[in-house]
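It would be a great kindness if you could assist me with a short task in structural biology. The matter concerns a single protein, recorded as an amino acid sequence and a row of backbone structure tokens. Kindly check, if you would, that the fold set down in the tokens agrees with what the sequence suggests. Thank you for your consideration; the sequence and its tokens are set out here:
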Amino acid sequence: MSHITDQYLENHFDSHLDRIREFVAQPTISTQDIGILDGAWMLRRYLKEAGFPEVELVDTPGYPGVWASIDVGAPKTIASYGFYDSRPVGDRPWTYRPFSAALVAHPEHGRVIIGRGASSPKGPLVSWINALEAMIKTGSLPVNVMLLFEGEEIKGSPHYPAMFEAYRERLATADAAFTGGMTQAGSGAVSVNLGFRGFLVLELRVSGARWGRGPNQKPLHSSLKNVVDSPPSRLANVLASLTDAQGAPRLEGIDDPILPPSAEDLSLIDDLLGRFGEGGVAGAVGLGSIPALGDLTGRELLMSYLYSPSVNINGLYSGYTGPGTEVFTVPEVATARMDLRLPPGLTCEHTLKCLREHLDDHGFEDVEIEVLADHDWSRTPVDSEIVRAVVDSYRARDLDPTIWPYKGGGGPWSLYRSELGMPLMNGAGLGGGGLRDAGDEYLIVDGNEKVAGIVESQKSQIDIVERFANM
């Protein structure tokens, strides 16, 4: 029945494009408390317009989620994760205003929409809603659908697990977790990611009050530094103790639960090496020309990337950081924002236990750990029906997808696999964009012979859903 939905998408191209542009023009920056509630209400409206009979905002202690459901009496059901908050605008140069959703000519891809969040997450998310609308309005939706979107992904998804638990019984009836996406590289290449590493976000805090040393209620003048202890200096010692010179965690016992690569994983790794070559792995994992830690290459680099834990310092803050704060001080508090990426087998709970024991064993009992977000790992078998539907859809379009056993990222979407046991494909489909971390972020509208435009992207998402339904 794809020809019916194809015609619908072509007939509604202008209104669907306007919907994407409207959403890109709405700031939704969770880390800066800008526009999130308005964005949630816009998504609610889009889902109602698309034909979902059940749509509601989901209250959380932070920003609201959005739930939608439609039951067409189909034998199979999919659950779908999504998020609608975007990165901050940043200080990168912008040729166009970041929330103008300007429609401009691109030298390679025809027309594009420019705006923060255009390529991730807003353009792909609304395109997925448009694709679902085409199936609903033409009476050809072959699966039941449940959607649970969040507005805090950029903050580490602190409240998604609670939303997930609120709908757990209903979500557990799904046969697969799938979200349509726009995932082509500029070359037109596509990839399939079977697994996600664990993701633990936390802050380490040293305060004079808990330490019992140094300033405890307010900063002291820095002329006293030679006769007083310093929380920032103590935090530096804490951080130095966490990793060795090569960046490997020094947390005793952290490696114990890590699972070795399965036979399926090793076969996929051989395929990756055959595809990229020893010298191409750095580019494939996203390093580009940046030297790898320890100058690793080829198989060693892949194995370290996929199966080793990492301890990363996102940011450090203490004392004077700008106007409004006393200068020339010994600060009373110092904080490190960190994230840890955890390979298969290693849970957030075990990692936190190792971290706490490490701090205590090294005389840092006073150092506070505040967990901001914790999401465990997941892995979907390559022969799962939803994976086969994605791979078959790409190959039917003469695309040979790169299949990864894991990728470095992770998040709450793994709950669908780790908690409910269902196969997970978080984002698949043609189309794409670029510069999501820079100025002039864009979403491809028309496309070219390599990268699909919006309509072809939505058609590919529908094709995946239909292939899954018919398996």
About this structure: The first strand starts at residue 54 and ends at 58. The chain has a mean pLDDT of 95. The radius of gyration is 24 Å. The chain has two domains: 2-196+378-469, 198-258+309-375.
